[in-house]
Amino acid sequence: MNSAHLYRNQWPLIHGPIWVAALLLFLFLANRWMPMPPQSITISTGPLGGMYQQYGLKYAQALKTHDIDVRVVESAGTGQNLQRLSDPKADVQAAFVQGGYAYGESSAALTENLETIAQIDVEPVMLLTRIKDLDSLQALRGMRVAIGPVGSGSRMVALRMLEQVRLDPKDLILSNTSLQESASALRDGKLDAMIFVAPPSAPAIRTLLQSPGIHLAALRRSSALIERMPYLDTRFISAGSLNAAANQPPQDLYVLSTVASLVVRGDLHPMVKRVLTDAALELHSGNGVLHRAGEFPHLKRVDFPSSPQARDVLRNGLPWIESTLSLQWAQWAYRLLLIGLPLALVALMLSRVMPAYLRWLMESNINRWYGELKYIENDLKSSQPGGLEIARFRTRLRVIETNVTRFEAPRSFMQRMYVLKHHVQFVKNQLTSSYGR
């Protein structure tokens, strides 16, 4: 296929293939490097009626503005949440995790490929008891104590605290009931105490603080526990701040606490990580009983590596395009801007360069034929060629004439080709008149 034919059929043979190739390459690169965000995700929360479940419902409402459906599933607690996140078959992309649960975790499979979106709230270790003035864990020896179901973060913290004060689980009568069941049992006198990691705003905790005969214990020598359990901290609770009517607590005290985090799978779509962080900013930036406004969300002392997308949003906010458009349309905008526009510019350049190159080739051929004719004319004028040279001139003229005749000249070359054909005929006539046939 010669250059003249290509030049005469630019759209079907040059422009069309270039733009089709650009479109196919755009679709390949977009799907390979900028896949579309999922339209739904699953968040594993906690027991029915707990704060984690309430958080999950709030996140589901917040992500609706970005056209993402959130399925909120209950769990036994942090342990089951981490197992679901670590198991691809569980189809869980995000979960709430209690701080310190993975501290010293020996199973790498449980914690690999997880990222922290943000730490979102304070979770105090609530030691509620029917024993007034109880101020040490050792005093619980032989008592009926609820520490939460197997797999819950409350149970993990309680067992580690008991271990630090040399209390074996068999030294107590432990109950594995849920927060609601434990609260009912404590009110009814079926339990002596309960250790749960839960905010004072949790319905079961709030009900207990309003119940007569139930006391919130303040542990002495809590600093020693913090040294051995560095994921714990102390929080100040002023007298009457939890329940002014019942004057709970009756005096100022410090309680041990940890933090709740929103954790996701590392392979979750980056845009979903950003909108989850934006939702965390919206839902958790206010003040609480145990923290000031603006303290949360943050990424300090996280159990899992912090998400780069979360750091960007916490520092700079959600990108304008993602806050304005749904994630699907925002991703198409990114695709067009970052992949489509460069490819379009390359395709446009090729669409300009290829015809120009073909035109240059055709002009080079025409100029070469003109040059050869001029060479023959000069030889005929400057010397008396012999028979072999004349035969060579005739052969070359036939080749030039054949090439010119076969040349499918575009419309813009018609005039030059017309002159070239006459020039070939002129040289042939000159050679015939001087040297015969």
| Radius of gyration over C-alpha positions, nearest whole angstrom | 41 Å
Task: Tell me the CATH architecture of the largest domain.
Answer: 3-Layer(aba) Sandwich
**CATH homologous superfamily designation of the largest domain:** Periplasmic binding protein-like II
CATH class of the largest domain reads Alpha Beta
- Sum up the overall morphology in one term: rod-shaped
Q: Whole-number average pLDDT?
A: 88
Strand residue percentage = 5-15%
Please work out how many helical segments DSSP would assign. Answer: 15
| Secondary-structure element order, N to C | HHEHEHEHEEHEHEHEHEEHHHHHH
CATH topology-level name of the largest domain: D-Maltodextrin-Binding Protein, domain 2
Assembly of the depicted chains: single chain
What helical percentage do the residues reach? 40-55%
- Main sheet characteristics: 10 strands, mixed
| Distance between the amino and carboxyl termini | 35 Å
Compute the number of structural domains: 2
The number of strands is 10
